[in-house]
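Regression test case RT-17, inverse folding.

Input:
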């Protein structure tokens, strides 16, 4: 084989390889130039997606295309700025806030709203839900909604609270009586009671009454009435009484358990007692002496002895208006037509005394009268004519015994 042949065999393949390299290099060069030219024609924008920023270069013509190229799906409730059909310009910032569904419960009634707002007060304003001063919220108005996207509202209503003697109108939400009293800072004492079961749920216009019960011990010194003992006395006219021994009250120290409700005593129970001074029994003599309906006179009867004085004398009959027909000493005046009897003032002439009356004779002091006071007597006669005939006169009288 000649040297030329050998050269051709060696340099032929080498030239082919060089040609291929040149072609590849040219392609790469063109590609790089094209890439550089392509990238150089892109527009630079910033995407703010839910607070996170991303800087990109894009050939997109509108905001909507930019977001689509970033796999961001925009819902009708999302907030995009500027608007989706806005043309892309270099250096612009595209803001996208994704809406979340927030669940709102008002007194157990559920609803929801799609919103990009985070603060509770802004969400409720967007949902047209008003919150009054006394309403209860699960999250305060000035905080962001929680991860569970839930807001619970309990609307407040008025009811009446009676604490002992104090009554007032208060605001509350639907809760149990026990929780309501706790909210109102009402402490229930050991003996206090509430007029409703503690587990009951309160409702508008309810009335919750707390009865303040107080148990106290009261030590009191009190008087004790004396007993009255009556003894028969044959020396006194029947129906008359005479105090023999004056009664005197005693004293006793009593210990009471007193129960009060709202300051008013409802029960008072004696727990113990101690006698400090014993009472003195009052002794009363009760007359048993019965007057006879006639005055006996014997041979020894005379006007000698006894008390003698003058009195003004009038007359009355057993049949006068208002007369009962019986004397103050119990004598039946109408059944004893021959009876000689006078009405006297017992402080001057003792009842039961035998007397002699000038112009009337022997008699017994056996009656009294409302107008018979002092030195005045009323003689008993049977008819009005006799009474008129007697009239009023001054006579001598003598008390025989």
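Golden output:
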């Amino acid at each position: 084989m000649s040297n030329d042949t050998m050269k051709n065999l060696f340099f032929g393949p080498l030239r082919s390889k060089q040609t291929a390299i040149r072609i590849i290099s040219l392609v790469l060069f063109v590609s790089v130039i094209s890439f550089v030219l392509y990238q150089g024609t892109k527009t630079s924008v910033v995407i703010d997606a839910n607070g996170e920023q991303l800087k990109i270069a894009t050939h997109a013509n509108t905001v909507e295309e930019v977001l689509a190229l970033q796999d961001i799906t925009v819902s009708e409730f999302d907030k995009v700025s500027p608007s989706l059909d806005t043309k892309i310009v270099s250096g612009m910032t595209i803001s996208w806030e994704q809406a979340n569904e927030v669940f709102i419960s008002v007194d157990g009634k559920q609803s929801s709203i799609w919103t990009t707002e985070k603060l509770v007060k802004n969400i409720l304003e967007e949902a047209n839900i008003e919150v009054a001063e006394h309403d209860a919220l699960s999250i305060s108005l000035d905080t962001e909604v929680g991860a569970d996207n839930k807001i619970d509202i309990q609307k407040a209503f008025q009811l009446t609270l009676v604490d002992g003697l104090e009554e007032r109108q208060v605001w509350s939400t639907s809760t149990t009586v026990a929780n309501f009293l706790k909210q109102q800072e009402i402490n229930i004492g050991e003996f206090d009671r509430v007029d409703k079961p503690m587990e009951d749920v309160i409702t508008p216009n309810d009335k919750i009454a707390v009865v303040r019960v107080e148990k106290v011990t009261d030590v009191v010194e009190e008087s004790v009435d004396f007993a009255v003992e009556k003894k028969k006395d044959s020396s006194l006219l029947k129906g008359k009484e005479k105090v023999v021994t004056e009664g005197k009250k005693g004293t006793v120290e009593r210990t009471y358990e007193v129960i009060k409700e709202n300051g008013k005593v409802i029960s008072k129970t004696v727990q113990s007692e101690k006698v400090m001074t014993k009472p003195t029994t009052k002794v009363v003599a009760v007359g048993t002496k019965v007057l006879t309906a006639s005055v006996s006179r014997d041979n020894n009867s005379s006007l000698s002895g006894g008390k003698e004085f003058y009195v003004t004398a009038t007359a009355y009959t057993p049949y006068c208006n208002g007369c009962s027909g019986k004397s103050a000493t119990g004598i039946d005046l109408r059944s004893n037509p021959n009876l000689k009897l006078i009405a006297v003032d017992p402080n001057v002439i003792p009842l039961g005394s035998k007397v002699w009356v000038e112009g009337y004779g022997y008699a017994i002091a056996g009656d009294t009268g409302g107008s018979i006071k002092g030195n005045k007597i009323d003689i008993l006669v049977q008819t009005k004519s006799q009474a008129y005939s007697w009239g009023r006169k001054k006579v001598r009288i003598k008390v025989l015994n």
